[in-house]
Amino acid sequence: MNHFPCLVIRGTCAYADSQKNDRWQCYASAMAAAYAQELLTYVSVAGVQETKRALDVLHLGHSLLCSLGSD
Q: What residue ranges do the domains of the chain occupy?
């Protein structure tokens, strides 16, 4: 998360107590999906195209770790 932008959107449907109720799970997931869809309308295409892909960042990290191990 420090090297490429990411955002986690969750729909919360349970409290941390004994009153667990799965009835709200579908509503929470629908709200999270709707929020993500709305948020994507504010992201510019140019900004996305300029951002490094997560896979590229992971490959770079792997290469760096391998080079440290070979020293």
A: 22-69
